[in-house]
Amino acid sequence: xxxxxxxxxxxxxxxxxxxxxxxxxxxxxxxxxxxxxxxxxxxxxxxxxxxxxxxxxxxxxxxxxxxxxxxxxxxxxxxxxxxxxxxxxxxxxxxxxxxxxxxxxxxxxxxxxxxxxxxxxxxxxxxxxxxxxxxxxxxxxxxxxxxxxxxxxxxxxxxxxxxxxxxxxxxxxxxxxxxxxxxxxxxxxxxxxxxxxxxxxxxxxxxxxxxxxxxxxxxxxxxxxxxxxxxxxxxxxxxxxxxxxxxxxxxxxxxxxxxxxxxxxxxxxxxxxxxxxxxxxxxxxxxxxxxxxxxxxxxxxxxx
Length: 304
Known about the structure:
- 9% of the residues lie in helices and 46% in strands.
- It contains one helix and 25 strands.
- The longest helix has 28 residues, at 2-29.
- This is Translocation protein TolB.
- InterPro entries: 6-blade_b-propeller_TolB-like (IPR011042), WD40 (IPR011659).
């Protein structure tokens, strides 16, 4: 009787581990943009890294629903972000840091996500969820209302993107596994680089390199950098446990969040992640995505 009971316990343990593995695979291969995204807000803080000083967060969206995926304009004067307001679809908005005014940039039947100003400066690129749920890269003119343009006709499903120069991008392509790919706009060609990656793609300051999170296993995630011209990959640092969103400051410092706290790590200077601030007193419990202005003075934080 005891032997049979032990076998049942061992079997249940094996099944449990199997189900955990299945859940991890499903979690990392679902569509990048859910039809029912979580309620999120975007906060801004002022940074003084030399003195390790961070201001109290300011909520710039204050909107019940989904406000996410912020990115700064190259001049640092405004922030583009994704917001779900009506009809359960998302559009792109612009927040002016000086006037504190918000302007809607897109109003379409499709959903747009992850806005980024293109290297030319006269467009912003987005991931567009088309009517048939295809996710591809499009661009809209910054100057005002006009028809958007499809950029990479045959590349799908695109989850996230990062501009490397005017002709090349790093892409997060959804699949089993999710992959890091390089894409050339002028030809439409792609090059597969790595599998099992996270959603955050960030240019490395002062280098012809892009950084990403490599998920070797559910408990082993590492930030790596790719020399995108030479195609060499090198490790940088293990992520904070369970965190996959990060940004670089202009001086080469990495910032990452875990729970309500903000951490920093500077390669070849600090030996591990160090806490910079804890925003729990501001009612923030779970931070996710980050964006930083070109001067490294203003940080946007998404709180879920």
